Amino acid sequence: MSEVKIGKAPEGSEGPGYFLTSLDKIVGMARENSLWPLPFATSCCGIEFMATMASHYDLARFGSERLSFSPRQADVLMVMGTIAKKMGPVLKHVYEQMAEPRWVMAVGACASSGGIFDTYSVLQGIDKVIPVDVYVPGCPPRPEQIIDGILRIQHLATEPLKRRSSEEYRRQLAEHGII
Questions:
Q1: What band does 89 get if pLDDT is binned at 50, 70 and 90?
Q2: How far apart, in whole angstroms, are the C-alpha atoms of residue 81 and residue 27?
Q3: Average pLDDT over residues 24-45
Q4: Could you tell me the domains of the chain?
Q5: Which of 55, 69, 77, 114 is 20 to 30 A from 104, alpha carbon to alpha carbon?
Q6: Which range, of 6-20, 23-37, 66-80, averages the lowest pLDDT?
Q7: DSSP alpha helices (H): ranges in 5-135?
Q8: What predicted TM-score, i.e. pTM, was given to this entire model?
Q9: Beta carbons of 171 and 140 less than 8 angstroms apart
Q10: Confidence grade of residue 67 (pLDDT, cut at 50, 70, 90)
Q11: Burial, 123: exposed, middle or buried (Cβ in 10 Å; 0-12, 13-18, 19+)?
């Protein structure tokens, strides 16, 4: 039988029978372990994401088992595959419908940089339309890489207010015409 490991507690004071910390840290810990991804899959990277959700890799271990196909109920926008320039406004609209705090993960070479499709009709990276938090490399990326991307998003989710109120994030939103 395997040994049960307890996760790291947030910073705080503890004593016999009590643990004291701030509400922000508790909410951040809960948010970190209950991300709801919205898969925006257009190509082969979507197939790798399906493998990541399946029993062999089991993304549910990290609290992301509930996929949300409504932007208003999602925390993480996972863009996977080739995005045509005509799809750019649709992607931006989906991003704008998501509530704060929200994170974006560009999965694969096509979403990150246009991939091998250096043509007039393919968007050369979704960061031309929306701000991206985590890039997952590969063509297509392995399920382990997608899980690593989710773990990086979890790390960002622990203190979303600090990042969202930063000047850099505001500059990125203004750069993309998102207010």
A1: very high
A2: 32
A3: 84
A4: 36-157 (3.40.50.12280)
A5: 55
A6: 6-20
A7: 23-32, 44-53, 88-97, 108-113
A8: 0.83
A9: no
A10: confident
A11: buried
